[in-house]
Automatic annotation (TrEMBL):
It comes from Caldicellulosiruptor saccharolyticus (strain ATCC 43494 / DSM 8903 / Tp8T 6331). This is Transposase IS4-like domain-containing protein. GO terms for biological process: DNA transposition. One of its GO terms (molecular function) is DNA binding. Pfam families: DDE_Tnp_1. Residues 2-102 form the Transposase IS4-like domain.
Amino acid sequence: MILADAGYDCAKWFEVSDRLGMKFVAAVNKRNSKDFSNVKNILRIKNMEFLRSEEGQKLYKQRTKIERLFGKLKGEYNLEQVRLRGFRTYKKHVDWIMITYLIEVYIQKIENCKFSFKYTWNNL
């Protein structure tokens, strides 16, 4: 299953996911459809119905967890604005960021405290 925000609410994403045998769930983009009557694609209609269900609403709320993680990785670990060349170099950078993030989570667990690279002592 793929959870996406409203920016990905378009028939092509639903069709590609369906061909790959995956369920694609995206919030309804208000610019693409005001209500059910405007939507012609059957996969988008099913998506809209699913999002109205209790299960769909619970599941879609889970998407915010990954959004917060990406926000943290981009903001605190400089994942987004990196000047590196080549896939291998960038992959190593991402791997080190993930290892560092997991160490941070581990420290938080064992010390039962909040740790962040935003602290002033870390900006030396």
